[in-house]
Amino acid sequence: MSTPVLDVQGLAYAYPDGHQALFGVDLHVHRGERVALLGPNGAGKTTLVLHLNGILSAGSGGHGAGTVAVSGLPVEKANLSEIRRRVGVVFQDPDDQLFMGTVRADVAFGPANLGLRGEELDRRVMGALDQVGMAEYVDRPPHHLSFGQRRRVAVATVLAMEPEILVLDEPSSNLDPASRRELADILRSLDVTVLMVTHDLPYALELCPRAVVLSGGSVVADGSTYDVLTDDVLMKEHRLELPFGFDPTALPRR
Ligand SMILES: Nc1ncnc2c1ncn2[C@@H]1O[C@H](COP(=O)(O)OP(=O)(O)OP(=O)(O)O)[C@@H](O)[C@H]1O
Ligand SMILES: [Mg+2]
């Protein structure tokens, strides 16, 4: 078997205040997979995501154990700039991602750090903004945009880096139905490995053949998204609920 794009082994983490959020998580994601990371509020999903590009680590103030590697490269201080080129994280809150004066400057920030300049940089920026339908906002200040528009720009900042793996924390929240659909189309069209945290279970089923359920800081299920969503006992036990009227068994099987 090839080296997984994402290889998480025995990952445990307690925040500096002593609250333990992860208890020995194992997760392997291979090239081209799209995996949904499901689980109730407080399960540890965001904590896990923040370990994937080294924002959180045992060394960042908390206590931890285990390892994370991206295409064989360990996530550790010495490798962080390469890790952040490989792993594109779209944060749960777009305001954690956008900090420049214009949309252009925000989307250009990462690729400029990689050394892109001039027309090449411009092409990257406009290409990423086109993908999320935000090209006409390129000269606007991000803080004047709506939440959903900021989310789309946050996705563009990561697409502009052309990462090996795209990690999205709640990408469809606060998006209107058309934008939600367009984001799904983008994610499907990209030739990239995706790990997507979501409470939007129909979205998970539509986009991700595989789902991992995190609950209480541990992986409690890892299988086909269809099997997970139709396992009533598992779903109830981990506070997962399908939206009213949504019945995966009534959909055409893919
Ligand atoms: N900075 C922090 N300090 C201490 N504890 C924290 C901190 N951030 C999160 N936690 C705790 O860690 C646990 C996991 O939180 P996390 O944000 O990873 O959950 P989540 O699965 O992303 O939830 P949600 O679905 O609400 O986004 C929770 O119990 C939370 O209270
Ligand atoms: Mg979260």
Hey, roughly how much beta strand do the residues contain? 15-25%
Named at the architecture level, the CATH assignment is 3-Layer(aba) Sandwich
Please report the total strand number as a whole number. 10
What's the CATH C level? Alpha Beta
Largest sheet descriptor: 6 strands, mixed
Helix/strand order: EEEHEEHEHHHEHEHEEHH
Count of discrete alpha- or pi-helical segments spanning 4 or more residues: 9
Distance between the termini: 25 Å
Domain module tally: 1
Q: Helix and strand layout, with pairings?
A:
Blueprint: E1 6-14, E2 20-29, E3 34-38, H1 45-52, E4 63-70, E5 73-74, H2 80-86, E6 87-90, H3 103-113, H4 118-131, H5 147-159, E7 165-169, H6 177-189, E8 193-197, H7 201-207, E9 210-215, E10 218-224, H8 225-229, H9 232-237
Parallel strand pairs: 3-8, 3-9, 6-7, 7-8
Antiparallel strand pairs: 1-2, 1-4, 4-5, 9-10
Bound molecules: adenosine-5'-triphosphate and magnesium ion (MG).
Magnesium ion binds at residues 45-46, 92, 169.
Provide a short characterization of the protein structure.
The chain has 254 residues and is α/β, with parallel strands linked by helices. The chain is built from nine helices and ten strands. The mean pLDDT is 94.
